[in-house]
């Protein structure tokens, strides 16, 4: 089919250009000379214009009209599903609205950073109001009369709805609040302390990355202010950071990013530079980073091995044995910041944002009431008051840059990880023994073969269900968390 | 003028995209994971397609037709000169010929590398014959009935001709051959020897880079297999390499690349991401790298300062004093390889290539007679025979990738550097005292203000003449070389 071949050739170049733009982003965070920022923003803008023009290229519409999807094989049909969806999305949003969103969010991000530094919510709300209004207009354009917030979620988690997420989170929240309270009333494990040289952390973190299956022949590790994974296929790079007082920051952010990176590296080579050649959704992506980091990386078995590695690397660091080390790695502590939260509390942070942004998008919450709503909800779930805006509603960049519908995918990823881990334990005999000797190959191999390899071939919930054997739901995650922390805190 | 503004906005994005493509090339040589090479070639090809489509975009022709250059200020007129020229060039070469050249040179580069490794000229000549035939067709398309080789030179050195270069080189060659013979009959200076740790070379090389004015706020230094400078404006990066037995390789390649990089960094900010925002020609570019490296960097005054820096960095390395060090830095030695040649012999290597490629392009030399012609000419100028093809006609990558007309710009750069240095000595009082204390600011500042800042504003020979006060010619270079090496070799 000539139209299909032409479309796929066009698509392949578009994906290649998107990889280039992504690598430019990586360069900006790792290598770029500081004085190049202004020129770089012109370069990025030029790349964005090229990508936007390709997404709305009239030839794509002509090819799409000429292609009979039913005549294609299942892979071809999956490619078409992605391409048709992306094209429909691009056509629905008027160019002037897209340009206005880009302009206002660029301004809003700067104002958010300043407002956070100044602890001044009022300085941020006027521009946030503009962002919310523009995103609601975009959502209305996308929703075809349906739910505005659903349309936004669909950008990050296809086929998922706010109602489904709301039901899932509603079941989780009381049990997580109860677990949190029980844990914080029990005796706390010892926190790690001491001095851990950055260069030794980087050596150990590189070893952990390859232990978890990260392929340095198709990737590299650098330092950056924020850890991230970037790129698809044969060039997937990760970053980490070091704090000499807290080695877990570096080591576990690396394992987390390795989960993301392995997903991208392990997608079937046949999908390279096609719409199937990237992770299928934010939720599934997060399931991989989370299962690597938590269910595997923070398990009793694996931390037993890591304890030995830490002692080899840093010498004695004041934690008596592997069991205390396991408890220390999984220590639950009070705090305001989502990105610093432990497994027990993390989803409570996310659900708070989900409910607030859902209300903002659906017109049930005014931007000027956001801070009060945030602070009330935080105190209800965490039992203490937000002390300052940078610990409250100004802590995350997401809303300033127009990311609405993104937050819930963090918790959905945890839910997916719970389902996958349940299946993994059944499917890999001797898993705990393998983890205890630092052998991650069977576990990550199972994830590769049952989930990662498929890339965008199936819808998100479908690929999780195919791998885990159950329709995704929160029960496996909740049971895992309750059992794990009952053990650690001797509840 | 709306058409001019539209054209310049379009051009600005094109320049920004060209910067992105260039940075991708930098990444490939410095950072890219080895396993990413195949994906990278798809990414580069996609960028090239975008750039090619912009160069031949029909809107450009419409804007050009609508613009009255005479109504513009001198800067606008210079911008139009570049844009009209590039557009005319893009229109003259048929798309299928351009694609064929890209395809064949890509293949030829691989075959050249293999043939060089195998010392097998015959394996390379069939594909070189194809390259030569295609480049001659391109030259004919560009030349409008004029000289094919002139049309090619014009790509690298606008307004220069083979006849002019031939006359210049004809005047230089006998004096350089005579100087070479006299020098090699005299007593040779001591060669540097010892062990120079790579990390200390990198420290010293970074210090040298900033000493020569390289701005690390808008650049960075990394290691690569081949030293190069990459990028324009606010993001100009250089690479170097280290050999622990030969510190001059690292230090002088850095000074050379800093010359190129400072030219790009020092162009007037008003020209950023416009056709005036890059070096005006290969010859002028090379004049900057060469004057930094040789006339300044290998001067008696500066090497006196460098001798102290070397001792501070590496301790005693067996050279007794600054005078011996100066002689050692400028040691003339026999050899086959252009890139390893000293100031005396370098231009003889270039002239050999100029005469041969001119004959190839003009149809006066058959590809299958190339090796014999090379070897005859080499023996005539250097007095000994080529021992193997990798030391002879297979040593350079240029012809395999279709670079004809590029070689002479290396020597033209030296000629320009000779003119500029003559003027610099007159214009900067106390120059030798400054160099002797490692103060390069007055010299590089003069080059910045009199030449580099102009970018593409003037034609190459014009900008050199404006700075040096004389029409470019070889006499200043020859006098400089004869005096310098008479002193070093006590002729």
TrEMBL record, chains A, B:
* UniProt EC number: 3.4.17.19
* Keyword match Hydrolase: yes
One GO term in the molecular function aspect is: carboxypeptidase activity
Keyword Transmembrane tagged: no
Domain of life, per lineage: Bacteria
As its record notes, the protein acts as a catalyst of: Release of a C-terminal amino acid with broad specificity, except for -Pro
Instruction: Alphabetically list the UniProt keywords.
Output: Carboxypeptidase, Hydrolase, Metal-binding, Metalloprotease, Protease
A Pfam match is Peptidase_M32
Recorded family membership: Belongs to the peptidase M32 family.
Give a short account of what the protein does.
Broad specificity carboxypetidase that releases amino acids sequentially from the C-terminus, including neutral, aromatic, polar and basic residues.
Q: What is this protein called?
A: Metal-dependent carboxypeptidase
State the organism's lineage.
Answer: Bacteria, Pseudomonadati, Pseudomonadota, Alphaproteobacteria, Rhodobacterales
